[in-house]
Amino acid sequence: MWSPPPASQQVSVTTPVPAQSFRFATPVLPTPAALIAARWLFRLLTLVVKLPFRFPLACASLTASVLVWHVFGWVALAVVWSLVDVGLLVWWRRRPSTFRRWVGLRVLATWRWWWVYARQWQPVLVVAGLAETYAERHYLPRIRKVTCSEWADRVRVRLVAGTAPVDFENRVTELAHGFGAASCRVTVLGPRDVVLEFPRHDTLAEPIAALDVPAVPDLGALPVGLQEDGTPWRLRLHGTHVLVVGVTGAGKGSVIWSAIRAMLPAMQAGTAQVRAIDPKRMELSYGRRLFASYADDGESAVALLEQAVADMRGRAERYAGRQRAHVPTVDDPFVVVVLDEVAFLTAYHPDRDVRRRAENAIATLTSQGRSVGFCVLAALQDPRKEVMNLRNLFPDKIALRLDEASQVDMVLGEGARERGANAHLIDPDLPGVAFVRVEGSPIPVRVRAAYVCDDDIDAMAAGDSSTVKASVMEGAA
User: Fold this and answer.
1) Known binding site for ATP: residues?
2) Is residue 209 one of the residues assigned to a domain?
3) Residue 258 domain-assigned (yes or no)
């Protein structure tokens, strides 16, 4: 048992060395049975030692139950567990939210760890091509922790040395289908430390009524909808430019009107103003009384843009050497230039001079305007370069439902689709659902914009805050 038999040789076909007639053979030494048994014993001891740290509550409960049974007998154990069950039942009835957070989701995470992920981990990763092979052995990333939120599982994974998170980012589709999830997103926490996020259900499946108008709007974080994790989606306008791209019926109007609605108190106070361009004469014309200026044809739209450029340059000249950051005031309000169907001005207008002037004005505003309080919020259907070659001048981008997979990377940047931003697969019955990528973050976030109906716009244009509130409550009902 302790002495291995004489080494045998396994002859393998190898390419002969030139000018030689013999072949090399690799010696194979069988592993002693005692070494195999010692290895399995070591693994068992390691598992026993790690269990209290990995499942502290379960191990503590089991240990306490054994001690009670040993000291007081099984009757006392039954009484103790009956009291525990009654306490849990009361907790569940009186504080269901905290019970679910501290008990329900933890139990769910344990079950999901063993039944969904640990049980299928090796076959899914091997088939997906994420198992590394060295010396005829498979090396798999290890699951470190599984946590559950109300809507998704977060699987924390330790990578194999020599691999990179991009390997997982390129296999998000295979991982999502392998573990029965609608999608998968990868978040990098550190070296060899990533989190795989698998949604259990779609939290954005239901439409969102128009949100309450904030009493004091934050122009850097305007509430316009919800994120996939249930937290508010706050859109930044002050200090940036935003490009919204989506096919007809994808919900571009929901994003635009939700942003205008969130700015309403600042617009009424005079510290913010909207200058709107609406070539279709259908989307923004309904609330044109809210806007400082409005245009719906090529010549008037270009005049509006060039006036905005002139105002921006005048403000920059006054700020030069005196002020580096813009603070919205009545004298220097925050200006948002809203461009619905911007391709009409950059690609589709029959007058070449109008297209040239419009493109120059948009380029000037997006390259110089944000430091002095000018923002461009543009909506577009076709993101191709020949239609809109100024995409890179918009730091923040929103991708609603798109026609083609290639358009996702056009809008959100290279690698967005590999990170789970499948905007081309958004259900047509979910208008307002989008993926957002903000400046400085490579991770796209799935969101849904609130729907601002005609009654809400009428209430906004009327300027009666009580009417706006009543409209909001009726929409929510």
Assistant:
1) 246-253
2) no
3) yes
Residue type, 392: N
Tally of domains in the chain: 3
CA distances to 14, 267, 340 from 275, in Å? 75, 11, 11
State the Cα–Cα distance between residues 334 and 219, nearest whole angstrom: 9
- pLDDT per position as a tens digit, 101-110: 888 898 899 8
251/432 Cα distance (integer angstroms): 4
What are the tokens at 407? 């358009």
Residues 303 and 196 in one domain: no
The contacts of residue 38 (CB under 8 Å, 6+ apart) are: none
Q: What is the pLDDT of residues 310-369, one digit of tens each?
A: 999 999 999 988 888 889 999 999 999 999 989 889 888 889 999 999 999 999 999 999
Q: Which residues of 2-26 are buried (b: 16+ CB within 10 A; e: fewer)?
A: eeeeeeeeeeeeeeeeeeeeeeeee
Residues belonging to the binding site are: 246-253
pLDDT digits (tens, 9 = 90+) for 42-52: 988 888 888 88
- 249 with 352, same domain? yes
| Domain around 189 | 96-201
Residues 274 and 180 in one domain: no
